[in-house]
Write a structure and sequence with these properties.
240 residues; alpha/beta; 9 helices; 15% strand
Length: 240
Amino acid sequence: MREIIFDTETTGLDNRADRIIEIGGVELDNHFPTGRTFHVYVNPGDRKVHPDALAIHGITDDFLKDKPLFSGIVAELQDFFGDARWVAHNATFDMGFINAEFERLGIPPVPGDRVTDTLALARRKHPMGPNSLDALCRRYGIDNSHRSKHGALLDSELLAEVYIEMIGGRQAALGLAVAERRERLDQADGEEIVLPIAERPRPLPSRLSDVDLAAHAAMVEKMGDKAIWLKYPKPSGDEE
């Protein structure tokens, strides 16, 4: 399964009036980073960057003057995302801007069933919060010390690490590695390798007390001659 962990930076908060100015994305294949990334800056046309937005991402109007319009990068964007799932933190915000840009160009919107919101996942997993990207990085021990400003590609890379941790991707990877190692051992030199399982030098004593055994016998007696327990040997407090 392909997933694109992505983020956007915008001129402001209103997706009907404001515009996307930066998009970053990181590709995952079955929850593993492939190394493929997507990153573009976008000229917002005549829309200026709001001072509040500038304070967050630091992208100026002057910097964006020579960047392509959204119409100039949309084919590259669609090619990179393809049929992958779109994964974002507070996806309602980012998808609102993406679909607004698509609408301006007559492109169908991305359906909601192709979108994963990591903020919603985090709120279910950690209902007491906080669940901002910075807070989740701290929770999962992910180094975000180089994040002085928001940036679409950097935030996507951090979110990819957070997302993998939230869905147990590292544990899944460990299990896959163990299975692959076992398969390699089985196929070594064309012969199956059987790894012996060491036996305990002294078996553990039974945990059943006389009271437990008496209670069990009384229960079985009440069940009658059809009790399934009658098919098995009677438990003994002396067995090892």
